[in-house]
């Protein structure tokens, strides 16, 4: 028995603890961490988002994109993604040794998501218990799961999103929907499903939202035995005591994304692990700089502060004299047809004196001012785009039809593939995106981690099961 009567559930044909390791893309989880989580009796999650593959000596294969066109680089990316995820699943399955279960996680918004998912499932038959999938509306998830006879676990942030998926697609493959992941849009790390109706500055209590999700599921005839997995902000099970065995909510499981980062098996570099111990409340920022267009949560390090500062050096313009745009912009841009407000002209001239000499147009009819080094990095990253997203605001890539979003590339964003690959493979943590959930400050407060203690995954799972 776990904390307060937490009981194992049946999943993938065996009993497992209702504790799920969140799959963190681009090598922040790998076979070591997810295999160990399954071996400890939980559900481990291999991320199938640009996972690492290995050469004959066991060294990580660097993902180099040398093809000339974006479309060809995108095809390289898909090959890397399939090879890497297949290798990770096989290794995780071996480590699990028949205990727990191995899921894979994909983002529907990643470039070539369907091709990658099908390629991985084709080559790992019998090893993957289920597929979790969010970031977008993955209507096709259920039919893919049916074709490969695996469970699927949609990730949603509201009852409304679930209802749309169920009505359009999932009701036809109801027997393989093993659970529904409720990912709290204010508390989870990484990309979040905040809708336009929700205020990013006003977090809502997850209980009524999860109860609404269960009520919706019941209304569609879905059994209370199909768990809702609470994801985002989960640290101590004792904080969730009234959720366990609660008839209002039905079966509940818990997903851990942030806590497993600080274990022996966690593949993230030591400097990232060390940084997690120093975080304070409020150090994780819910922001909108991601090229996906989604809100996402990451540590407010110098990389993120730089993006915040860049967006503050921004003024609106029009191509003709109109309204308050009565003066011509004479700095940062070539040509005479940029009309701005007089107060913005003053601001632009001041930025140029500070060294931010280059004005770059954004898709929102604004100009953002950067220094020449930043300008060159932005241009190079945009030119090097390898199509890692289905739609990318930063490079204007899209992974189908004519391969362009038709919008201007957005210099306020960044190449997410480059920065996530870099931080996961020992790049400087101050110069890259560092995803984390909003409870990450608890590493500093939780006595379990005092005196620099780093648990194994098994020690972490055992600790979680005590309620701490």
From TrEMBL:
<dbReference type="GO" id="GO:0051213">
    <property type="term" value="F:dioxygenase activity"/>
</dbReference>
<keyword id="KW-0560">Oxidoreductase</keyword>
<keyword id="KW-0223">Dioxygenase</keyword>
<dbReference type="Pfam" id="PF03060">
    <property type="entry name" value="NMO"/>
</dbReference>
<protein>
    <submittedName>
        <fullName>NAD(P)H-dependent flavin oxidoreductase YrpB (Nitropropane dioxygenase family)</fullName>
    </submittedName>
</protein>
<dbReference type="InterPro" id="IPR013785">
    <property type="entry name" value="Aldolase_TIM"/>
</dbReference>
């Amino acid at each position: 028995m776990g904390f307060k009567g937490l009981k194992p559930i049946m999943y993938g044909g065996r009993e497992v603890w209702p504790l799920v390791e969140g799959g963190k893309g681009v090598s922040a989880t790998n076979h070591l961490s997810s295999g160990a989580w399954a071996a400890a009796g939980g559900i481990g999650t291999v991320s199938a988002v640009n996972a690492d593959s290995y050469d004959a000596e066991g060294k990580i294969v660097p993902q180099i994109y040398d093809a000339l066109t974006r479309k060809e680089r995108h095809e390289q990316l898909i090959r890397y993604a399939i090879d890497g995820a297949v290798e990770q699943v096989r290794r995780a399955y071996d480590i699990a040794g028949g205990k727990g279960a191995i899921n894979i996680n994909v983002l529907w918004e990643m470039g070539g998501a369907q091709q990658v998912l099908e390629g991985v499932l084709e080559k790992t038959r019998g090893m993957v218990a289920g597929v979790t999938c969010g970031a977008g509306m993955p209507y096709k998830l259920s039919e893919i799961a049916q074709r490969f006879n695996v469970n699927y676990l949609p990730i949603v942030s509201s009852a409304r999103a679930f209802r749309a998926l169920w009505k359009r697609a999932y009701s036809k493959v109801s027997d393989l929907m093993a659970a529904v992941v409720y990912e709290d849009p204010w508390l989870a790390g990484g990309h979040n499903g905040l809708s336009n109706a929700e205020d990013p500055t006003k977090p809502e209590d997850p209980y009524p939202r999860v109860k609404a999700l269960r009520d919706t599921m019941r209304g569609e005839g879905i059994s209370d035995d199909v768990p809702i997995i609470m994801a985002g902000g989960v640290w101590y099970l004792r904080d969730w005591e009234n959720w366990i065995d609660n008839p209002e909510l039905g079966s509940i499981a818990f997903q851990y994304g942030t806590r497993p980062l600080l274990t022996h098996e966690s593949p993230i570099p030591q400097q990232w692990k060390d940084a997690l111990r120093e975080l304070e409340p409020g150090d994780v920022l819910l922001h909108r700089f991601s090229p996906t267009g989604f809100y996402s949560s990451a540590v407010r390090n110098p990389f993120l502060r730089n993006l915040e500062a860049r967006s503050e050096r921004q003024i609106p313009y029009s191509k003709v004299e109109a309204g308050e745009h009565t003066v011509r912009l004479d700095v940062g841009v070539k040509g005479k047809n940029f009309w701005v407000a007089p107060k913005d002209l003053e601001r632009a001239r001041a930025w140029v004196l500070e060294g931010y000499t280059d004005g770059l147009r954004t898709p929102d009819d604004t100009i953002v001012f950067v220094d020449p080094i930043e300008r060159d990095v932005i241009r190079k990253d945009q030119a090097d785009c390898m199509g890692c997203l289905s739609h990318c605001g930063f490079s204007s890539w899209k992974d189908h039809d004519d391969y362009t979003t038709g919008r201007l590339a957005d210099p306020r964003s960044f190449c997410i593939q480059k920065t996530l690959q870099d931080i996961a493979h020992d790049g400087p943590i101050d110069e890259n995106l560092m995803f984390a959930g909003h409870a990450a400050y608890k590493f500093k407060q939780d006595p379990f981690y005092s005196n620099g203690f780093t648990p194994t995954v098994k020690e972490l799972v055992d600790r979680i099961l005590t309620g701490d």
